[in-house]
Each structure stands twice: as structure tokens, then as C-alpha cells.
Specification:
Layout lengths: L4 E2 L9 H13 L3 E6 L7 H17 L2 E7 L1 H9 L3 H4 L10
Parallel strand pairs: 1-2, 2-3
Helix pairs in contact: 1-2
């Protein structure tokens, strides 16, 4: 079993090109990609588009994608856009002080 691919930077327009290459290259090497987004502090629509692209590629290739970690930012974006169910992964909510 391979370890999850962890993204520890923002998922914004400024990182989109490099992250697209990184994500598609990772997908090419496995039938089941686990993605850890717990380190994502900022996400814009470009980051969301990357996740949607990755989900589409997974479906077209008959592969599997699991998001194993969601930062509060990722949780908010997916909830706001009503897309949490699209990825089908359980989101663990952190207790806030």
C-alpha cells in the first residue's frame, strides 16, 4: 500500500499548473490514489477545478480516488459548492475552540 500524496501548499491559480502535472503524474502510477489535503491553507476555484479534473480522470480511467485528509479550508469550499458528496469521502470535522 502506498502512502497518500500530501499537498502542503495552497491550491490556487498560482500553483495550479504545477499541481495539475503532479496530480496527473501520481494518478498515472497507481490504480488507487489517496490524496491528503489536510495541509491546504488556501484554495480558490482553480484548486477546486483541479480536484474536479482529477475526479473526472479517475472515472474515465476506471481508477479510484480517496481524499484521506481535509483541511478546514477544503471542507468549507466543498461544503459551500455542495460538492462533498461528489468525492464520497468521509470528512472528519475538527472541534473548534
Amino acid at each position: 500500500m502506498t502512502s497518500p500524496l500530501a499537498i502542503h501548499e495552497n491550491m490556487t491559480i498560482y500553483q495550479a499548473r504545477a499541481q495539475k502535472e503532479q496530480l496527473l503524474a501520481a494518478l498515472a502510477t497507481t490504480g488507487k490514489l489517496e490524496l491528503d489535503l489536510s495541509g491546504v491553507a488556501e484554495m480558490d476555484t482553480a484548486g477546486l477545478q483541479l480536484l474536479m479534473l482529477l475526479k473526472r480522470e479517475v472515472q474515465q480511467q476506471g481508477k479510484h480516488l480517496t481524499i484521506v485528509g481535509h483541511s478546514p479550508t477544503v471542507q468549507r469550499i466543498l461544503d459551500f459548492c455542495n460538492l462533498a458528496g461528489v468525492f464520497g469521502d468521509p470528512m472528519l470535522l475538527c472541534a473548534q475552540a
